[in-house]
Amino acid sequence: MKRRWLEAQADLVEQVLWQHRSPGRVTGGRLTPTAIFFQIVPAPGVRWSRLKGLAEELALALGVPSVRIQREGPVVQLEIPRPDPQTVRFLPLMEQVRRTLPRYPLYTALLGLATDGAPLLIRLTSPQVAHILIAGTTGSGKTSLARTMLASLVLTHRPAQLALVLLDPKGTAFAAFRELPHVQAFVPGDPSEAAACLEEAVRWMERRAQEGISTPRVLIVIDELGDLVQQGGREVSGLLARLAQRGREAGIHLLACTQKPSAALLGGQLTANFPARLVGRVVSAEDARVAAGIGGTGAERLQGKGDFLAVVGGTVTRFQAAYLAPEELRAMLRQRTANERG
Ligand SMILES: Nc1ncnc2c1ncn2[C@@H]1O[C@H](COP(=O)(O)OP(=O)(O)OP(=O)(O)O)[C@@H](O)[C@H]1O
């Protein structure tokens, strides 16, 4: 049934290409949780720019809001959103990872499922990571992704290995985590309290660097970095920049979400110090460039709701974020807190 439907989609694509005098053969038909990927083998003489220009016509013919046409080496990839997108569920994916790996790697967070079907993880202590910026417009799934990463970390690390500082201006992003023994500080609302907390973190960083202490590793998680910097002004951006520049050696890492990844808002010094970027849907190609730190990623054509690019060490990996519904998260964390206390 699925095969036949995929073949019909491929035929439709070939028809559109033929009608627009850019014939090509459509092969593949790989399903990911949210999209179908085809490969187009253009007939001799068909120009890449012409194929690329047919995105709107293809979307119209297939009855979808948009399609992505990307060139990957000699191959042209066509990506069509699935009419029946599937959620990548956190718990089964986490179980799969723990089953396949002999030992869950330290300081490593689960992100989701890459388009090649493999689970995607990110290691805080890798030299190409250290601090992570999650950028994307509203509804792209930033806060949900940060929660997924946090959930995977607290499930696999003891408080003696990993401590958390949670800055949550809305007070709703990370509230579910606040009772966990890993949490050193939970700061909802009030930017002046957030500034005081960051000041303490800087003092702590300096002391740890002097004494050569780097455990427990500390992860400072910030929802809406843009708001925090806007409200807290120079003082806050200065503190954050210091943590980003010198935190790594003292075992302090930052994970920050932002709707507005602009250097003008966050300060060039701060943005330059987030080597790893997780980029969800953004509104323009310019925002995509700033968010990813490199051009041409096409993040402005992502679907939202957990459709992300991981940009780490010059490599771009597309993935669908694993998702934990709020009630699932609460139940899981209750269990985890009970285990730690018991
Ligand atoms: N990985 C995912 N899989 C499926 N649905 C998701 C996923 N991530 C987010 N969503 C859906 O998208 C909604 C918005 O997600 P989220 O609040 O994380 O976005 P956001 O980018 O943080 O938005 P805002 O900036 O407005 O806070 C969620 O309520 C959920 O319904």
TrEMBL record:
<protein>
    <submittedName>
        <fullName>DNA segregation ATPase FtsK/SpoIIIE, S-DNA-T family</fullName>
    </submittedName>
</protein>
<dbReference type="InterPro" id="IPR003593">
    <property type="entry name" value="AAA+_ATPase"/>
</dbReference>
<feature type="binding site">
    <location>
        <begin position="136"/>
        <end position="143"/>
    </location>
    <ligand>
        <name>ATP</name>
    </ligand>
</feature>
<feature type="domain" description="FtsK">
    <location>
        <begin position="117"/>
        <end position="289"/>
    </location>
</feature>
<keyword id="KW-0067">ATP-binding</keyword>
<comment type="similarity">
    <text>Belongs to the FtsK/SpoIIIE/SftA family.</text>
</comment>
<dbReference type="Pfam" id="PF17854">
    <property type="entry name" value="FtsK_alpha"/>
</dbReference>
<dbReference type="GO" id="GO:0005524">
    <property type="term" value="F:ATP binding"/>
</dbReference>
<keyword id="KW-0238">DNA-binding</keyword>
<dbReference type="InterPro" id="IPR002543">
    <property type="entry name" value="FtsK_dom"/>
</dbReference>
<dbReference type="GO" id="GO:0003677">
    <property type="term" value="F:DNA binding"/>
</dbReference>
<dbReference type="InterPro" id="IPR027417">
    <property type="entry name" value="P-loop_NTPase"/>
</dbReference>
<dbReference type="InterPro" id="IPR041027">
    <property type="entry name" value="FtsK_alpha"/>
</dbReference>
<dbReference type="Pfam" id="PF01580">
    <property type="entry name" value="FtsK_SpoIIIE"/>
</dbReference>
<dbReference type="InterPro" id="IPR050206">
    <property type="entry name" value="FtsK/SpoIIIE/SftA"/>
</dbReference>
<keyword id="KW-0547">Nucleotide-binding</keyword>
